[in-house]
Amino acid sequence: MTCYTADYEGTLKPGNEIEEFAWLTYADRDRASAVVQLIFDHFKQTGELR
């Protein structure tokens, strides 16, 4: 998995095969897949996730 960051102006909206957006925080870790949980843990440990 590759994670990207960027500045974005505008409104995000679902389209095509994306049904909805959900902004997850570390408190929502249990809602994420196993690989996303590992990424959350990494970013939490490095201070990149608040």
Give your account of this protein's structure.
With 50 residues, the chain is mainly alpha-helical. The protein has a domain at 24-50. 26% of the residues lie in helices and 0% in strands. The longest helix has 13 residues, at 34-46. The chain is built from one helix and no strands.
Would you summarize the structure shown here?
This protein has 50 residues and is mainly α. It contains one helix and no strands. It has one helix at 34-46.
Q: Any chance you could write out the topology, listing elements then pairs?
A:
Blueprint: H1 34-46
Descriptive labels:
50 residues; mainly alpha; 1 helix; globular
The helix tally amounts to 1
Low-pLDDT residue spans: none
Rough outline: globular
Main beta sheet strand tally, sense and closure: none
Q: How large is the radius of gyration?
A: 13 Å
Structural class: mainly alpha
Gap from first CA to last CA:
21 Å
Approximately how much helix is present in the residues?
25-40%
The sequence of SSEs as H and E is: H
Query: What is the typical, i.e. mean, pLDDT?
Result: 89
Strand content range: under 5%
Beta strand count: 0
